[in-house]
TrEMBL record:
InterPro entries: Prot-tyrosine_phosphatase-like, Protein-Tyr_Phosphatase, PTP_cat, Tyr_Pase_cat, Tyr_Pase_dom
GO annotation (BP), single: signal transduction
GO MF: protein tyrosine phosphatase activity
Residue span(s) of domain Tyrosine-protein phosphatase: 1-44, 76-302
PROSITE patterns, sorted: TYR_PHOSPHATASE_2, TYR_PHOSPHATASE_PTP
Domain Tyrosine specific protein phosphatases positions: 1-35, 218-293
A Pfam family the protein falls into: Y_phosphatase
Source taxonomy: Eukaryota, Metazoa, Cnidaria, Anthozoa, Hexacorallia
Protein known as: Protein-tyrosine-phosphatase
Amino acid sequence: MLDRVNAESSLDIFNYVAYLRTRRTAMVQTEEQYTFCHDAVLEAIQCGNTQILAHDLRITLSRMEDVDKELKMTRFDSEFKTLNKVSPILPKACYIVASYPENKDKNRYSDILASDFSRVVLTAIDDNEITTYINAVHISDFPQFWPEVGKETYDMISVECSDERSSSVDNLRASYDQSEIAQLRFNVKDLRTPENLHKIKMFVVSGWTSEDETPPTSSIITLIAKVERWQQQSGNGPITVVCSDGIGRSGTFSALYSVLERVKIEQVIDVLQAIKAMRIPRPGLVKTTAEYKFIHYAVQEYLAAFDDYANFK
């Protein structure tokens, strides 16, 4: 079907499925599958091919900086605009627990909530469902927001924090210097079960003050290397990522981490599709074009350590 779209700029899903059924009985069996065919083709037409081979990344990024004369924007701008267009929008029915009046104060922003199907569920206090809510979600093995550490033994917390709105770590600031990446170790204990001690490793990034003022790519790649090294040494436990809103800086870090994991295995970069998938449990993740661009250049920074991509050909 996509070959026909590219060759003829036309599409006939109904007759194509009918043709397939002459070759294979009951091909496309349900209405949901038939609908999926339409959705998948529509997305392919809207997004195009956003995959980049690792060894082509440097030259591709240069081209993505060029301004399209017709669109009057760069490819970074147009891709991010497309990403916002094709990203799923969850209905209000997905935020029942988050919308309880008793949970209002747990949401810093009224439009950034944890959905019922992806939220981190805290252990209930006195069987009260209200107490199970925290504005944190599970994304690609990244359960976000550090109040959850009281439930499970987390080996690590990776914190992406702003110098302006970092009250959650204010009490810790006296414990470390103001380097780009500070590291802390501390213990968390639930007074109800004092025998359970949780050992926490925290990485704190300073200077990431806004979504449009991203830090040097080298500092975040260094952070990821430190996180991975510590995680391997401590048993590959989960990572918690924190920022002021849960979608900007923390979303950018999580998306970059996910993209790098694929690069290591497949030598392919597809930032748009990675973010789109992560926006299902956390709508709005990665807020700006600057963050979208930053992820690409951070991947380039990572690959540059491999002798001009020699290990990725």
